[in-house]
Amino acid sequence: MGLGPEATVLDLGAGTGKLTRALVPRFARVIAVEPDDAMRTVLEEVVPGAESLAGSAEAIPLEDGAVDAIFSGEAFHWFATSSALDEIARVLRPRGCFAFLWNIFQGEEPPLSAEANALLDDAFERGGVPGLQRVLSGRWRDAFEGSRFEELHEGTYEHELDVDRETFVARMLSISSIAVQPEEDRAEFEARLRELMPAEGTRQRFRVDAYWTRLV
C-alpha cells in the first residue's frame, strides 16, 4: 500500500485493540474508533499508544481527509454498506487506502475437549456468535458497487500459532461477543476455561483473507 512510518492511520471497529497494537509500532499516529464502551475501555488499557475515540463506520469523528489509510480487522462485515464506504472515503486523504482482513480458523491440535467447546458455544450464544457466515457469504462485496474505490486487491495467507493456556484464555476474553458480557459472567467463564484447557495449550491453524483498495 506504500505507507511509510510517518503515516496517520485509523483502525475502524477496533474492538479490544488486537489489530491496533500491531499498527502502533509501525506508524507515527494511530487512531482507533470503536462504538462499544466496554471494548474501548479494554483497548485503552492494552494499547495506550493509540488515540481512542467513540464512533462508528457511519459516523467517524474525524475531519475530511484526516488519515492516509484505514484498517479494519475482523469487523468490516458488520458495516459493509455504501453509506459506511462513503464515510470511509470522506476521512481518507486523496488516493488513501482502505484495508481489511479476517482470520478464518482452520482447526487445532490437539482439539479442544467437548466440555471446552460446549463452554465456548454457550458463551457465544449469550453474547452473540461472531459473524463468520457474513464473511464467508461474500455479500460484503456488494457495498463496493458504484463506490469511490478502485478494484479490490486480495491476498490469502496461512499461518499457525502455538498458543499456551493463558494466551488462549486471554484471546477468548478479547473476542467481542465475550468482552461485552457482564464482569461476573466473564470471570466465571475465564475460571472454567482455564480449568478445561491443558497447560501446554494447543497449535491453531488460520487462513488470513486480506483485501485492500485505494480511492479512485
Compact description:
The protein has 216 residues and is of the alpha/beta class.
How would you describe the overall organization of this protein?
- The chain is an alpha/beta fold.
- It has a single domain (8-214), classed as Vaccinia Virus protein VP39 (Rossmann fold), CATH 3.40.50.
- Helix content is 33%, strand content 29%.
- The protein contains 8 helices and 7 strands; from the N terminus they run βαβαββαβααβαααβ.
- The protein has a 7-stranded mixed beta sheet with strand order 3-2-1-4-5-7-6.
- Strand 4 (67-73), helix 3 (82-91) and strand 5 form a beta-alpha-beta unit.
- Helix 4 packs antiparallel against helix 8 and helix 6 (165-174) packs antiparallel against helix 8 (183-196).
- It starts with 7 loop residues before the first strand and ends with a strand.
- 28% of the residues are buried.
- The model has no long low-confidence stretch (mean pLDDT 91).
